[in-house]
Every structure is written in C-alpha cells, then in structure tokens.
Amino acid sequence: MAKDNTLFTYLLRLADDHLILSQRLGEWTGRAPTLEEDLALTNIALDLIGQARSLYSYAGAVEGQGRDEDQLAFTRPERDYLNALIVEQPNGDFAHTIVRQFFIAAFMVPFWREMEKSDDEQLAAIAAKASKEVAYHLRHTAEWVVRLGDGTEESHQRMVEALEGLIIYTGELFENDAIAKAAIAGGYGVDTEALRDEWRQTVVQVLGEATLELPNAGYMQKGGRDGVHTEHLGHILSELQYMQRAYPGLTW
Amino acid sequence: MAEVVDMKTGHDAAIRARAWDAAACVPDPEIPMVTVADLGILRSVETDADGRILARVTPTYSGCPATQLIEQMVLEALQQAGFEDARVESVLSPAWTTDWISDEGKEKLRQFGIAPPEKTSNSKRALFGETIVNCPRCGSSETERVSEFGSTPCKALHRCTACKEPFDYFKCL
C-alpha cells in the first residue's frame, strides 16, 4: 500500500475514535449528575472534537480528493468508520461512562506522548496539543473512579459491572495490525503494543486506590479498525449525520 | 477606513511593527480584558514573499470555539489598519502554553477575578496532584478546586474558603 493511503487510513482511524467518543460524551449534555460534571464531560467532548477536526482536516489533505473535515466526519457509511469499538459503547450508567473514559484516557496519555516523536510534523504538532489536554481527562476520570469505587456499596457494584462489561474492548487499542505496522515502519505511527504495560500500570494503580480490581479478560472483542462494528455505531451515526443527510453541504 | 498601506514604499520593519500593533490590540472574545497578544495566542506578524502581511495565531485548546472568531477578528483588525490583503494562518506547533501569557496579561486576569495560571515548569502533573491557587479577590491560599473543568476549556472552577467567593482559575497547559 502506498504511504499516502496508509497514512490516510491511519489518520481516519484516530479521527473516528475522537469523533465518536466526543459524540457519546455529548449525549450527557444537560443530563449529567451535577452541573460541574455536565461541564466537565462536555469540555472533554470539546477537546476530542477539536482533536478530531485537526485529524480529519489533515486526512482530507493527505487523501487529496477534495474531501474536507465535514465530509469525512458526516458523509461516510457505517462500514467506512474505523474507530475502535470501545468508543461507540453506550454511555450506560455514570459508572460505564467513567470507566470507558478512564480506560481511553489512560491509553491516550502515553499514545499522544509517543506521537510527539512522530516523523510526521503535522501529527507531532497535533500530538503536542492533545497530550496536554488528555492529561486533564485522565486525572478527572481517575478521581471519579476512586470516588465511585471507594464510595457506596451501590456505586462500587456498578463500577465492578462497568469494568467487566468494558474490559473486552480494551485489547483492540493495543493491536498493531498491518496498517499500524506500516505506520510504525514509516516513522510516523505509534507502537501501541509497547504501551500496554504502562496502561495496565496506570489502570491498576487507580483501581487499587478505588478498592477495585481489573478483571481478567479471556477474550478481546475487535473489528472496529476494519469497519466491523457493534450494533451501537449505526444509531450514533443516524443522529450525527442527520443534518448533512437532510441538507447536503450544509455549513454553519 | 484607514489609508491603504503601500508595501513597496514603506519601511519593512516599521510596517511589521504597525501590523503587529493592529493585531495585538484584538481582545479575546471570551475574556475581553486581555488581548490576543497578552495571551500569547498571536505568535507572529511578518511580511511574506509577496510583501503581504501574514499573522500567525495558535489555538489555546484543540477544540476552543473562539479560535475561528479570533482569526477573523485579527484579519479584520489588520484590514482596518490598511493591510487589505493580509492573511491569518493557524499554527499548532509549538503547542500553546499558559507560560506564554504575559505578566501584564496575568495581572489583568487577576483584576478581573480570574486566578492566573501557575508556571507549568517541568513537573509532570501527577495523577492525583493538586495545585495551590491563590484567591484572585482576597489573595488567600485557602482555596479548593470545585471542578477541573469550567465555563470555557481553559478555566477550572475554584472556591475560596477564606472569603467564600467562587472564582475561575485559568488552568496550566
């Protein structure tokens, strides 16, 4: 595969991760347990959408077919979305939202830090900004993990269920498939397999404070990177894409 | 409308200085008591190969909704100063840091009731780290964080336990 094609796919995967997760968090707007948390979740969503925009714009430029950030974000069919499955998982209760965000933030912190060393100047620049932002996401969600895990019997139990429900989607984040390997060989991609231990260490440390344990996952679900999704993505897209489908080419 | 600046006759450094002054006055749309220059958002004002003015701005946060508005406002300020064919470009690297906020900018923030950011220094934010933030009203260090995320991406919510006032903290980045 030509470098540009690989880079385009690599960027699209990352951009889709951020867009879909941002959309999920946005569903909490006006519904979070407290006003401060409403602001926090939407602030995190805003960071993610900003990162997604940078990535889509760059992907569009790399592709060279004249597609801009909006067209890439809003007009592709479900099978063309390449996000990891974890980001499309439903918000569920607050424990599910927090565990999902915590798992991802604990991954994104080392991921963007390593990406700052990318040979690709644009990716390195996006990473330098994102690194600073995800540090806040990790700290914020880690505090909630402790508060809920070491909280009441009810909150603890819900955290246990969220951990058990979401652990099977974490494996996909660390997999180096052919595209990822080509990106690493090309000098611009991050070797995510090498981040697994660090992720585990962060997660286990925080869960320890929270009187929780990381469940053992015998089996890891995957497919998102190849466009094979859980039933949830289609529902997200029906909302996300509504305006562009109803009024093609609409701009603000 | 000011007179149109003739790039061919004017002295280059003087033109750039004038363009900088015009762009630097643009207020931040969210926190209008500080300018884009105070915040370090305006990175440079140069003349390009064709003699056109090129202003470079950088976003504070990737998703800051004010970024596009700021670019537009800087462009308009340059045009009103006579640089009709000026351009504004957004640059991501090096990434903006609160260390670029000028001392004057920090003082203006404080006077407006927003605690200015501490120096980011080289210390990595620990997982459960807390920063001591002084109350912008009474100066007390007896403050507590209410939420890491506030009314805009760049601010956190704090509360002073001495004077009982809630306040925004411009968080370190």
Automatic annotation (TrEMBL), chain A:
**A Pfam family recorded for this sequence:** PaaA_PaaC
Cross-referenced InterPro entries: Aromatic_CoA_ox/epox, Ferritin-like, Ferritin-like_SF, PaaA_PaaC, PaaC
Task: Tell me its EC number(s), please.
Answer: 1.14.13.149
Molecular function, one GO term: phenylacetyl-CoA 1,2-epoxidase activity
Q: Where does the source fall among the domains of life?
A: Bacteria
Among Gene3D superfamilies, the record links this protein to:
1.20.1260.10
Keywords attached to this Swiss-Prot or TrEMBL record, sorted alphabetically, are: Oxidoreductase
What NCBIfam families does this protein's entry cite?
Answer: PA_CoA_Oxy3
Name the chain's protein: Phenylacetate-CoA oxygenase subunit PaaC
Task: Report the source organism.
Answer: Hoeflea poritis
From TrEMBL, chain B:
Q: Which residues form the MIP18 family-like domain?
A: 24-88
In this protein, which residues make up the domain named PaaD zinc beta ribbon?
122-171
Instruction: Name the InterPro entries on file.
Output: Fe-S_Maturation_MIP18 (IPR052339), FSCA_dom_sf (IPR034904), MIP18-like (IPR002744), PaaD-like (IPR011883), Zn_ribbon_PaaD (IPR056572)
SUPFAM superfamilies linked to this entry: Fe-S cluster assembly (FSCA) domain-like
Point out the signal peptide segment. none
Q: What is this protein called?
A: Phenylacetate-CoA oxygenase subunit PaaJ
